Structure formats: C-alpha cells, structure tokens
Amino acid sequence: MSGGFGKVQIGSQDGPIGGYCILPPGATSNFSAFSPNAWGSNDPIGSNAACIDVLGNSQSIVYATPVFSGFQLRLGYTPSNNAEDYTQAGVNGSGTPTNPDGTAHHSFSTYATYNYSGDGWGIAAFSGRSAELADALSAQDGLYTLVTRAGDGDRFDVISSLARAYPAARHDAWLTALASPDVRGVTITVTEAGYLRGADGGLDRERAEVRADADALRAHPSAVVRTAPARLLAGLAARRRADAGPLTLIPCDNLPENGAAVARVVADLADLVEPGLRDWLESSVTTVTTMVDRITPRTTPEDVVPDDRCPVVTEPFSEWVLSGRFAGGRPRWEDAGATFTDDIAPFEERKLWLLNGGHSLLAYAGSARGHETVADSVADARCRAWLEAWWAEASRHLTLPAEDLARYRQALLERFANPRMRHRLAQIAADGSQKLPIRILPVLRAERSTGRMPEGAVRVLTAWICHLRGAGVPVADPRADELVALAAGPLPKAVPRILEDLDATLAADDELVAGVLERAGP
C-alpha cells in the first residue's frame, strides 16, 4: 500500500498563520522537529501511517484543506513495505479542520478536495493561533471527519492524513522543517489581508507589525515573528543557512497572480532584513500561482459529528488550477483532477469575478435585506436578479468560451442555493477593502471604459458603502475604524471619500458617483 499526504498547520502564537511541509517519496524526514510522533511513536514521519481508502482505491488520496488563515507546508517520508506500518498518517487525507467552536480564527480559506495517486508524499501540521486544535486532533490520533454536504444529504469520510499536529507556539519546529532538504513545498492560505500589501502591491513597510518583525529578524534570524511574510522569510532564511536546496511556495488565496504576490512581499521583507537574501530567494525559491474553487464555510457547533471535535463541512464541487514550476518536485495532483496550465488568468478571473464577486454582492446587499446566509439571499428573487445582472456584466470581460461560462454560472446557482451549506454572509463580508479591488473593480473599470454604467458593479459598491454606514452585518475589516469614519456623515460627501479611498479615478468619475448616490438613497 502506498504512502500519501498527511497534514500540518504552522503558525505563530499571536498571528493568524499556519502551514504544511511537503516532502517527496524516499525522504527520511528524520529531522528532530517532527520526532517523536505526535501520536506517541518515535518513528520518523510516515511510519505508523494508516492508509484508509475512502474512495475504494488504496492508491488514492482525497485532499481537502479548509485552512484558517495559514500556511501549509508539506513533508514526505520513506514509504514502508509493510502495510501494517501505515497506521497514523498516510493518506486519503483532508486538510486542517476548522476549530470546533468556530470562533478561534477570524478567517480561513478553502482548498479543493482532490483524489490523487498515493505516491509516497506526506504532510505533518501546526495550528494557527492556539494549542486547542492541535490538542483536539492529537486526542483523536489525527483523525477527523470530512462532511461533504450536498442538497440531498451528507457523505462522511474519516480522514487520516495528519501525521501529527503541533501548537502554534512551535516556531522552532517551523524553522527546523524549512531547514530540511526533505521539505519541498509550502502552500499558503492567509486571506487577501494576510499578505500586508500596500497600494502598489508590495509589502506595506510602514505597518507597525511589519517593522516589528523586520527588527526582530535583524536582531536574531530565529526570532519569533507574527506576520505571514515574516513567518515565511524566517523559514526560508533557515533553509538558506542549512543549504537545504530549492523550495516551492504555493499560495492558495483569492488573489490574482497570487504566486507573484507572495514572492514580492517576501522579497520586500528580505530587503529590510538582510542584504543579499533576495538574490538567494530568486535563485532557490519558485512560486506557483493557483486557483482553488470549493466553498467550505466555517465549522459551527451545529456541525456535530459523534466523537469528533474537529469536523470539516464542505460542498461536493471542487476545482484546482495551478501554473508554475515546482523546483523540488510535487505530488501528481493531476491524477486527482487538478489542472496544470501555462495561462491561469482566465480561471482566476472567472472564479474571482463570478463566485467571489457574487459572494460579495450577496454579503452586503443580501444582509441589508435581512438575510443570514448565501442560500437565504439566492432564494430572494430580488437578490438573485441582482446576482444575474452582475454575472452578465462580468462575463462580458471573461475570455473562457461562452458555453463554459454558462455551465459555470448554472453550477454556481446550484451551489449558492444549497440550503444545507450554512455559508454565513458575515464571514464573506469581512475584509471588503481588500476584496472589492480584486473582485469588483476590474469589471467596473472595463465597463466604464466602454461608456457603460454597470448596474451590478455599482450595486456592490453602493451596498458596501451602506454596510460601512451600518446596514447589514457588522463591519469586520483591518481598516474598519478608518473606513467607517470615511463613510459617515452626509452621503454626497461620504460616497466620494470612500470611492477615492478605493481608487482616486472612481471619485473623479462624476457619473459613477451620481449612480452610487442614487442607489444609496437619502
């Protein structure tokens, strides 16, 4: 029986970040940070790993990772010739489950679930903010339930992919893992806000937490840091000191060209920390751009599974598209249905504008109409009409074939309408200042360049401004205080202020400002 993936989330004690290490087949993975095994064994990672065949194929793995604002590192191991040795970590795996009380982490992202060949790779993991999740998983021998929630019922798969789980405070383990030549890749999910980018797309060097982490790493390369870029840089610097070979970063957040985004913020921080480190990053670290499409709401107390403190609920639909070079090798994700392409932009734009843009519309406009979930909003004929209008505008600027877009939109309606997926609008509404420039503004600009006034895009902007003024769900944004202040007061003054904050050219568009004011009401 072949070995496979297990998991590990890595994070700081204070920061909302976590991670996984990827190691290839044949790696001994005997670095001390992951020994003894969290489940009680002194064997290297991969020993005592159970291979549970949830799909009826002992060679296959289900890979789903709902991650709350974190990294994922992946590690491998030497597969055993004795199937009985696979008792803890080996595969059919799903990713890091959400905290059982649904409140320990503000945001998390969803990776797709894929069924790929068990080719001897594996994963080990750390929690993002506290020891609670790691302790709960350890108490369950790393097992948890993946609940695939369709409109007509649930499918339950017991996931055995976790080799071990560590609490967020194990910064020493993170550094040791990245310093191992057996580690070949790091997947990253920290939300749009987690990259701490400035207006130009680079690292916001003026942020207090960025300056604090840069100072800490200058003082000592193994210092504990809080931010995602610093967490990555600390691990990569440890890898350089160990001369551990090339590594690939695999960001999975809802950002266009997310590979370039993570490469830039890490390199920008390197410039602040150590001259010459950027050159090593450019020669030894590659980044892969990805598009992940699978709705996975935050787990809530209502998502009860007997004897499981860490269930994960997700939808049946999944899609994963990747583009770029893997410097140290990778699992055969294409055997699971993942798509590898040289041009990922059409897939990114389709997902960001139709799914994520549609979600943002419903989060602000739907919650203002009293709805709590995506399904509630789509069941409202007015909200559904608004959604269709937005999709029609966005689709005019997508390059995929029209028949593909039609199928995708129909599938989205079915996914959004699933009443058993309690995808809360409050969760989606968070971080609007980071999301709207990516999800809405590209379509708005494209429409205005043709002379059209896009009803759908204007409606999203209007609903967001009303949200900042108290309509719908509470504001949760890294710039909440500043934005709420900008949106306060008489609308004729508030609307231009907010639009200028998003993009100065928007406030200079008198017709657009008038359109938002008209829809915002008195």
Explain what you see.
This protein is of the alpha/beta class and 522 residues long. It folds into two domains: 19-331, Rossmann fold, CATH 3.40.50; 346-520, N-(1-d-carboxylethyl)-l-norvaline Dehydrogenase, domain 2 (Orthogonal Bundle), CATH 1.10.1040.10. It has 18 helices and 18 strands. It has helices at residues 132-139, 171-178, 208-219, 228-242, 258-273, 277-284, 345-368, 374-378, 381-395, 402-417, 425-429, 432-439, 441-449, 455-468, 480-487, 491-502, 504-507, 510-520, and strands at residues 19-20, 45-48, 60-63, 66-67, 70-74, 109-110, 114-117, 125-126, 144-150, 153-159, 165-166, 185-189, 247-251, 285-287, 289-293, 312-314, 319-323, 339-340. The strands form six sheets. A four-stranded mixed β-sheet has the order 5-12-13-14. A three-stranded mixed β-sheet has the order 1-8-11, covered by helices on one side. Helix 4 packs across helix 5 and helix 7 (345-368) packs antiparallel against helix 9. The chain is globular, with a radius of gyration of 23 Å.
